[in-house]
Design brief:
Blueprint lengths: L1 H21 L8 E2 L3 E7 L1 E4 L4 E10 L4 E8 L6 E6 L4 E2 L8 E5 L2 E7 L1 E9 L7 E13 L3 E14 L4 E2 L4 H8 L4 E2 L3 E5 L5 E6 L1 H6 L4 E8 L12 E3 L3 E6 L10 E10 L4 E9 L10 E2 L15 H18 L6 H14 L5 H31 L13 H18 L11 H8 L3 H15 L7 H8 L4 H24 L1 H4 L8 H52 L5 H25 L3 H4 L2 H4 L8 E2 L2 H9 L3 E7 L4 H11 L2 H9 L2 E7 L5 H9 L7 E5 L7 E2 L6 H9 L1
Parallel strand pairs: 3-12, 14-21, 23-25, 24-25
Antiparallel strand pairs: 1-2, 2-4, 3-13, 4-10, 5-9, 6-11, 7-10, 8-9, 11-12, 15-16, 16-19, 17-20, 18-19, 18-22, 20-21, 24-26, 26-27
Helix pairs in contact: 4-10, 4-11, 5-6, 5-9, 5-13, 6-9, 6-11, 7-8, 7-13, 8-9, 10-11, 13-14, 19-21
């Protein structure tokens, strides 16, 4: 009995000691965060005071899920550790493995699939005794078709002893990540920013030797956002090194250097990576000459669309184009051609009606195809552009406003000059011939394109970085959708029979249609005031007076003789002076100095102006953030603002939920706003984002708002 008790005592003591030592291991059991197994490990089991050892955060990811590099690219967040107990141990920064490109629609992200190992150094205190414990919370954004913020508790216990002991069970993990870490760069590098694309030249024996293998992909991963992430990076090889072409992101302030990781990949997917810092300088001699065969980068500017994806985009584009006819900025222009159709409906000239419809459709489609070509060219050149870019230039706004004013005078019957300089624009749209139909289509599409309706922004945003033939197909479909109602009326005689019969009432209707044109001119002047201030509006007013004066001279001059020639000369001089001098001023300082217009009345009622830092600061204070991406020339935006965002119900809900309302004003060109629109798959405004407190990604609201939609979103 005594022997049995004695044995039980020692067995219990041994078990207790074993359990105690079990806690002092080089890692704890992996924690399942939902879509990853997370573990903190060390390359040592026991350490000595003052020693520096290596630790690593290990994430084993579910299939088809990915996490992000330290620069996530166009979207995403990097992994981090929030420490809560370090026992005096100092943890160094992560050593990041070379990332992989992760294209997503029109965006480019950088990150990892399958596994992420993040090694870092641990400095053990000189006075450490017994053991040290590292514990905290690993946080990361993990994505597949959706993105989910996940976290996992982590813990690492190290035994303090007189002799360090390696953790042989984890040696393979550190060997694996060491093969993925970028090498130190030996050589010279320079970034030439004198033109776009920038040229990153690299002179290095190691890099040059790597190209003697079967290299198929080369990519530079920047640690910041100086360059656009999605475009390809063409590579040229010289006797001394290589040169990559990088597209500038258009930021006004950039550091003197560009830093990042250069990754070279061969045909067998073997990768070599280099940590690279390149100061500003000329292209290094001997680093260019022959284009890299077999590939230039790890991905194209956007992944190819599937057939079903393309059909969905085309369907959205067609529907968006049809809805575009209902926009207030389009209706006044359509009234012009409606009069032509009414004058011919039910007559024997249905062939002429059909021709009107076809030429009008050709005008609309031509304009949209032109937009597509220009957008692709601007994006390829590194510019940030989207639908509505034409109304971001004061001279275009001023010209359209004057055209609408003169068209209105023409519709009132105040003048009708087929050959005069002032009558060219109005006569083209007013005349009943094929030229008039074509020009009206051009004008309707030009004015209407910025008025992004439902389905339209998403369709263009998803397609704008695709190959040219895909972009043109989408823009062709947009134009066809916009022209479709008018085209059907002109092509189907049965529909035309239901149109009103021509009569004396048509002259009064023609005059009535002048007033929507005047209202459009006033709207454009308001856009110009928000964009370039009161002085620009005054200049347009002077031009309108000058054109009206020239018209009056011709209207009151004799029909023939020397006096007629003198009147024509005077009218021409007045017209040229009225147009040229204000146009030069609008393209010069007046077009730029009046930013107070957009920062004044147009921004009244908001809690502040949008910027990524403003959003981050407000969210750090625990506030929700609602961002209105808008423009003065976007009618849908203005309707949403007045019917919903500035309504009492929504304003009270914003106050109750502690939500800040920010404005991102795209009335004038702003590359940072254009980049943010692209991040969310949009090529234009409106875009509405709501950042809920604690949420990693914003909710994207519909393009047509109602008070209930906004209130329900911010109240969840």
């Amino acid at each position: 009995m005594r022997m049995n008790s004695f044995s039980a005592f020692w067995a219990g003591l041994i078990a207790l000691i074993s359990l105690s030592f079990a806690g002092f291991s080089a890692s704890a059991l992996p924690h399942d965060s939902g879509h990853a197994r997370v573990e903190l490990i060390s390359d040592h089991v026991s350490v000595v005071p003052g020693q520096t050892v290596r630790a690593a955060l290990v994430l084993e990811l579910d299939d088809h899920w990915h996490v992000y590099w330290k620069n996530a690219g166009d979207s995403g967040l990097p992994t981090e550790i929030i420490w809560d107990d370090t026992s005096g141990v100092t943890a160094g920064e992560f050593n990041w493995p070379a990332p992989f490109p992760q294209p997503l629609d029109i965006l480019m992200n950088y990150g990892y699939e399958d596994e992420l190992i993040l090694p870092f150094d641990l400095d053990i205190p000189e006075d450490a005794v017994g053991s040290v414990t590292m514990s905290g919370l690993a946080t990361f954004l993990i994505c597949a078709d959706i993105c989910i913020p996940e976290d996992a508790p982590i813990r690492l216990d190290l035994w303090i002893s007189d002799t360090p002991e390696l953790n042989t069970d984890r040696a393979d993990v550190f060997r694996r990540v060491d093969a993925q870490l970028p090498m130190a760069f030996e050589g010279n590098a320079a970034i030439d920013r004198s033109s776009d694309p920038w040229k990153l030249s690299i002179e290095s024996d190691i890099v040059r030797a790597a190209f003697e293998a079967d290299i198929v992909n080369v990519r530079f991963f920047p640690t910041d956002h100086q360059i656009l992430h999605p475009p390809e990076q063409p590579v040229s090889i010289g006797p001394n090194g290589i040169t990559l072409e990088l597209q500038s992101s258009g930021r006004s302030r950039v550091p003197d250097n560009i830093e990042g990781v250069l990754v070279v990949e061969d045909i067998d997917a073997n990768r070599i990576a280099f940590d690279l810092t390149a100061p500003v300088g000329d292209v290094i001699a001997g680093t260019s000459g022959t284009a890299l065969a077999g590939g230039t980068s790890s991905s194209s500017s956007a992944p190819p669309l599937s057939f079903s994806g393309l059909l969905a985009i085309l369907g959205g584009a067609l529907l968006g184009g049809i809805i575009l006819n209902l926009m207030p900025c389009v209706l006044p222009v359509l009234f012009i051609k409606a009069r032509s159709i009414l004058s011919l409906a039910g007559s024997n000239e249905m062939g002429e009606v059909r021709a009107h419809g076809l030429f009008y459709t050709a005008g609309v489609i031509t304009c949209f195809l032109g937009f597509g070509v220009i957008l692709v060219a601007l994006r390829s050149a590194g510019e940030s552009a989207g639908l509505g870019f034409q109304l971001q230039y004061p001279i275009v706004i001023a010209g359209l406003s004057l055209l609408m004013f003169m068209l209105g005078l023409n519709m009132l019957g105040w003048f009708s000059f087929g050959g005069s300089l002032m009558g060219v624009g109005s006569n083209l749209a007013e005349r009943g011939g094929h030229q008039g139909a074509f020009f009206t289509g051009l004008l309707a599409a030009f004015v209407g394109a910025p008025c992004i309706g439902p389905f339209l922004g998403a369709a263009v945003g998803a397609a704008v970085n695709q190959p040219l033939h895909i972009v043109l197909l989408v823009f062709f479909t947009l134009g066809l959708g916009m022209a479709l109602p008018f085209l059907l009326v002109s092509l189907v005689p049965g529909i035309a029979k239901y149109l009103p019969k021509p009569g004396g009432w048509m002259e009064r209707l023609k005059q009535f249609f002048a007033f929507p044109l005047f209202l459009t001119a006033i709207w454009l002047l308001w856009v110009l005031a928000n964009q370039s201030g009161a002085d620009a509006v005054a200049l347009v007013g002077l031009v309108a007076v000058g054109l009206t004066f020239a018209t009056w001279i011709l209207k009151t001059s004799p029909e023939k003789g020397a006096a007629r020639k003198i009147s024509l000369g005077v009218a021409l001089v007045v017209t040229l002076v009225s147009l040229i001098i204000p146009a030069q001023m609008l393209m010069g300082p007046v077009g730029n100095y009046a930013q107070a217009g957009s920062a004044g009345g147009a921004h009244a009622g908001y809690d502040g102006e949008w910027s990524p830092q403003t959003v981050a600061d407000l969210r750090a204070e625990g506030q929700g953030v609602f961002v209105d991406f808008t423009a003065s020339w976007c009618v849908t935006c203005q309707v949403n603002k007045r019917t919903t965002l500035f309504g009492d119900r929504v304003q009270n809900a914003l106050d109750d939920q502690n939500v800040s309302l920010l404005i991102a004003d795209w009335t004038s060109r702003d590359d940072q706003i254009a980049e943010e629109l692209a991040r969310h798959g949009r090529a234009g405004v409106p875009l509405y984002l709501y950042y809920a407190p604690g949420a990693e990604e914003p909710a994207v609201l519909p393009q047509i708002l109602s008070p209930s939609i906004v209130i329900d979103t911010i109240s969840q």
